[in-house]
Amino acid sequence: DAGVTQSPTHLIKTRGQQVTLRCSPKSGHDTVSWYQQALGQGPQFIFQYYEEEERQRGNFPDRFSGHQFPNYSSELNVNALLLGDSALYLCASSLSGPNSPLHFGNGTRLTVT
Amino acid sequence: DQQVKQNSPSLSVQEGRISILNCDYTNSMFDYFLWYKKYPAEGPTFLISISSIKDKNEDGRFTVFLNKSAKHLSLHIVPSQPGDSAVYFCAASAKAGGTSYGKLTFGQGTILTVHP
Predict the structure, then answer these.
(1) Contact call for B43 and A41, based on CB within 8 A
(2) Cβ-based contacts of B104 with chain A (< 8 Å)
(3) In chain B, N or C terminus with fewer CB closer than 10 Å?
C-alpha cells in the first residue's frame, strides 16, 4: 500500500521563476494538504484541497496556488519565487472526516537562488 | 503569533528511561491534538492523538496527556529506545466547517536523543 508520494525530491530554481510540485495521496485518502517547513521550524499550513476545491487556506500570499485532480492527486504552484520560499514542502493526505490524522510524504526540498 | 509552543529545543535521555516531551498551546478553540515524529530526509510520521474530551491516550510505549485547564499536553515514551531518536512535533487542530478538520498548527519541534 503506497503512502504519500511527492515529486521531485529536490529542486533548484532562480528568483522570479515559477515552480510546480506534485503529490499523490495515500490510497483511499481524498483530502490533500500542503505545508511549508523552514529550517528549524515546524510545518506551516498552506492550504487544503477536497473534492477538487480549496477548502481552507493558511497565511500565504496568492503566489501560492494549488489544484486537486479527480484522482485526488494534487499540485502546488508557486509564482515569482523569492529567496524566502526556499524550504521543504510537505504534502499530506487524509480522509475527509473528523479526527483523521494526516499522513505525510517525504517532501520536496526547494532551493531558490 | 505562536499558538503551539514546544519550549525545549532538545532532550537527551538514557535508553530504558522515560522521555517526556512537552507542548503548550494558547488557542482555546483547539480540540484535537497530535504528536508526530520526524527522521531526517523523511516526512513527519503520525504517532498518537488525543481528543479534547479525553485527558489520556495510550498506544504501546507512547502515552499522551492533555491538561485543558493549563493548555498543556505531554508525550511520554516508556521505555525509551535509541530508535526513538528523532524530532518530535506536537500539533493542534480546531474543527473547521463544522464537520471536518482543516489545518494543523505545529510547534517548533523537540530533538530527542536516546543514548544506548
Answers:
(1) no
(2) 33, 43, 45, 102
(3) N
Q: What distance in Å separates the CA atoms of residue B33 and residue A102, rounded to the nearest whole number?
A: 12
Q: What is the pLDDT along chain A (113 residues), one digit of tens a residue?
A: 679 999 999 999 999 999 999 999 999 999 999 999 998 899 999 999 999 999 889 999 999 999 999 999 999 999 999 999 999 999 999 887 767 788 999 999 999 99
DSSP A81: -
Task: Determine the Cα–Cα distance for residues A41 and A5; give it in Å rounded to an integer.
Answer: 22
Output the CA–CA distances (angstroms, integers) from residue A109 to A17, A41, A72, A103, in the order listed. Answer: 16, 14, 22, 18
Q: Smallest CA–CA separation between B66 and chain A, in Å?
A: 16
Nearest residue of chain B to residue A97 (CA atoms): B100
